[in-house]
Design brief:
The protein has 9 helices and 11 strands. It is of the alpha/beta class. Helix 3 crosses helix 4.
Length: about 260
């Protein structure tokens, strides 16, 4: 795991493309500018080990969401990205999008089918799987998020906490190697937030999670990456970075209470 401090600001893969067992994500010298010229990412270097749970933190506009949208090819910048050893190229996009489970901040951006079952089945169906396999994946994914009794419910009638769980299930049904979540605890009441934290703790998946919830970071993520002005400015053990109040303040962050 790299240590950086700056004071300034379920698919088959070709065995030849299989990465070292400990590498889930590798981002190398990634740059990106929007059409209006705004530079959002500058020389991003990031490696996430298989099984790691990593928090991505920083002020609004730091580039966190832009980085996440690169991980399954929604945005394409200059640089190299490998997911589970597979280079992110146009030809590999169908496989990459099955291996990177991207969960948006607003679950309504992800839930658009009439029922929960249909939402969770959408990805496996578009993978061309037979109906029996699709049903098995949906049942497994809903069980993983504790929503197995919700298959016939209307997605748009659920609470925010329930919708977030179903949104996670929609990507779990794809059998991802990497779970990427954008502000998962935003908009949740305390009980739903606690339930979500327990869910994420229990999932044995590699995770990269963008959040402003520093107490959740302290509790759940052993490693923290700080991004500001499109750059990785710190990457270390969470307990070390949270102890550096000057670093946190310099990048619009606060040490959480009880820490």
């Amino acid at each position: 795991m790299p240590v950086i401090h700056k004071t300034d600001t379920c698919l088959d893969i070709d065995p030849a493309l299989t990465p070292p067992a400990d590498v889930a994500l590798a981002v190398d010298t990634l740059d990106f500018a929007y059409p209006d010229g705004h530079v959002a990412l500058r020389n991003i270097q990031l490696t996430v080990g298989r099984g790691e749970k990593v928090a991505l933190v920083g002020p609004n506009g730091a580039g966190k969401s832009t980085l996440m949208l690169h991980l399954n090819g929604i945005l394409r910048g200059n640089g190299n990205i490998r997911v589970a050893g597979l280079p992110l190229t146009k030809e590999n996009l169908p496989v990459i999008r099955g291996r990177v489970g991207l969960v948006f901040q607003n679950p309504d951006d992800q839930l658009f089918s009439p029922t929960v079952f249909e939402d969770v089945a959408f990805g496996p169906l578009h993978m061309g799987l037979p109906e029996s396999d699709v049903r098995a994946r949906v049942e497994c994914a809903l069980e993983q998020v504790g929503m197995e009794s919700y298959a016939d419910r209307l997605s748009h009638h659920l609470s925010m906490g329930e919708k977030k769980r179903i949104a996670i299930a929609t990507v779990l049904s794809m059998g991802p190697d990497l779970l990427v979540l954008d502000e998962p605890s935003a908009g949740l009441d305390p009980r739903s937030r606690r339930s979500l934290i327990n869910l994420l703790r229990d999932l044995s998946l590699t995770m990269l999670v963008s959040t402003h919830d520093m107490l959740m970071v302290h509790e759940l993520f052993p490693r923290m990456v700080i991004v500001d002005k499109g750059q990785v400015v710190a990457d270390d053990l969470t307990e070390i970075l949270l102890a550096d109040e000057a670093l946190l303040e310099a990048h619009g962050l606060e040490r959480p209470p009880l820490c």
